[in-house]
Amino acid sequence: MSAGEPLLEAADLHVWIEGSHILQGVSFTVPGRGVTALLGRNGVGKTTTVKALLGLVPRSGRVAFDGVDITAHPTHAIVTRGIGYVPEERGIFAALTVAENLRIAERRPGAYPTGSAHRTRPGGPRYELVHDLFPELRKRARQPAGTLSGGQQQMLAIGRALLNDNRLLIVDEPTKGLAPRIVREVADAVATAAERVPVLLVEQNLALVRRVADQAVVIDAGRVTHTGPADALLDDADRVRELLGVARVATEEPDAETGPPPHDRQDGRQVDTA
Ligand SMILES: Nc1ncnc2c1ncn2[C@@H]1O[C@H](COP(=O)(O)OP(=O)(O)OP(=O)(O)O)[C@@H](O)[C@H]1O
């Protein structure tokens, strides 16, 4: 990938689920640095877009990663090219300790496909990086993951994705259902991860998006309706209302005690605690 070329490119993605045309020609790019936020109202197709990128749902169109057309590749081949996925449900094992959750995520050295730039890099798990970024995971190595706070679990989920030599992290709604105090922890975790690896972030909390995102891609009814710098979008109240149905974007961090006003979320849902 040369400077200026996108790291990931989705072109004209279509997905049909049970007779419904869910993605109707989604096209966008993800640059090789910073955080790109994938935004949109509830049910517009954000998670389906992520699944289409990873080959988890049948789709037409084209997906390229690092200049390689990966459209026809199976999911395991796509992820071993260097895409770490943190699903909405986090995918951690509650009964296993933090250390065991990390160990189980280790990708076999040499698992990278022929021709991948990874082959020239050391293939071992990057514990030092993960522990540097999230010292809490070292401190809590022996703690069962199910007893961590929601924010710590999210840190563990992101840590697992960073453990392997990934060049893109896809993080789906990491703050869904979390209390404002924990949202702040998660925002820190995403920002910290993005210092090392570019992130495609699906997120509904616009205060968090304002804080961490560089670029924004907005989806509505299965189509991309806006792409551009995140700040410029979030500063334009009329555009935010038109694209996302949000009355106003908070400029401050949500208050730890009272949480964000309901209209600070695109879906109007109240957050609960975790
Ligand atoms: N397995 C499925 N079966 C039936 N319908 C589905 C399935 N997966 C997704 N859909 C539908 O596709 C549409 C897009 O769903 P998707 O989860 O991608 O939206 P989203 O933007 O991520 O929503 P949310 O913000 O609520 O997570 C929704 O109408 C959803 O009901």
TrEMBL record:
Coiled coil: none annotated. Pfam families: ABC_tran. Residues 8-246 form the ABC transporter domain. The keyword Transcription regulation does not apply. Residues 262-274 have a biased composition (Basic and acidic residues). PANTHER family: ABC TRANSPORTER ATP-BINDING PROTEIN (PTHR43820:SF2), HIGH-AFFINITY BRANCHED-CHAIN AMINO ACID TRANSPORT ATP-BINDING PROTEIN LIVF (PTHR43820). This is Branched-chain amino acid transport system ATP-binding protein. Signal peptide: none annotated. The keyword Transport applies. InterPro entries: AAA+_ATPase (IPR003593), ABC_transporter-like_ATP-bd (IPR003439), ABC_transporter-like_CS (IPR017871), BCAA_Transport_ATP-bd_LivF (IPR052156), P-loop_NTPase (IPR027417). Belongs to the ABC transporter superfamily. Residues 249-274 are annotated as: Disordered. It comes from Nocardiopsis metallicus. It comes from the Bacteria.
